[in-house]
Design brief:
By secondary structure, this protein is mainly α. The chain folds into two domains: 47 residues, Homeodomain-like (Arc Repressor Mutant, subunit A, Orthogonal Bundle), CATH 1.10.10.60; 128 residues, Orthogonal Bundle (Tetracycline Repressor, domain 2), CATH 1.10.357.10. It is built from eleven helices and no strands. Helix 9 packs across helix 10. The longest helix has 24 residues. It is globular. Keywords: DNA-binding, Transcription, Transcription regulation. Pfam families: TetR_N.
Length: 188
């Protein structure tokens, strides 16, 4: 029987991000990640298929948090429901800023990771759409809100990544949503 090690994924994740930050993604090996985490290479493969998976393993967790936030939210305006949930889920970004910035830089530097990130964003779009429909929102309105919320999310991540001020991720999400409304309404 394989014994689970408490917080192994998190330990590997933190160790990998620190190594990616200090020596670069390409120069970092799985044995180095395992050593830095205080675990074995064999244990690494119990939790991750390969090194790139360290960059993407939280996507399902983040998606579940966003879906749960939409499901519990008050209100009936689909875009507001979706963006409020994205802002809440974005707390993880604020709490783990250094690691998120490293992850973003690694993804930006590798085309195959960009493709994988787009696939994760598509899966998140489908999940947002499904939970909005389950709340009684029409298919078309749910689709528009889900797709639009992902655009807001991506612009907010970019701005948050470049912002050296103390504005949290939620502030960037809400600012992007306000700008979207201004664009749609033809305001400057």
């Amino acid at each position: 029987m394989v014994r689970r090690i408490e917080n192994a994924r998190e330990r590997f994740g933190r160790a990998a991000m620190e190594l990616f930050r200090t020596q670069g993604y390409s120069q970092t090996t799985i044995p180095q990640i395992a050593t830095a985490a205080g675990l074995t290479e064999r244990t690494f493969f119990r939790y991750f298929v390969d090194k790139p998976e360290v960059l993407f393993w939280r996507a399902g967790e983040l998606e579940a948090d966003i879906v749960a936030a939409i499901d519990k939210a008050e209100g009936d305006r689909p875009l507001d429901l979706a963006t409020a949930a994205l802002a809440v889920a974005g707390r993880f970004f604020d709490e783990n800023r250094a690691d998120v910035l490293v992850r973003q830089a690694v993804i930006a530097a590798h085309v195959d990771f960009q493709e994988r990130e787009l696939a994760k964003m598509h899966a998140l779009t489908l999940a947002i759409h499904a939970v909005l429909v389950a709340r009684g929102i029409s298919q078309a309105a749910a689709r528009i809100a889900a797709e639009t919320s992902i655009v807001i999310w991506r612009v907010a991540i970019d701005r948050w990544s470049r912002d050296c001020s103390t504005q949290d991720f939620a502030g960037h999400v809400h600012a992007c949503q306000a700008e979207l409304y201004a664009v749609v309404l033809g305001e400057s």
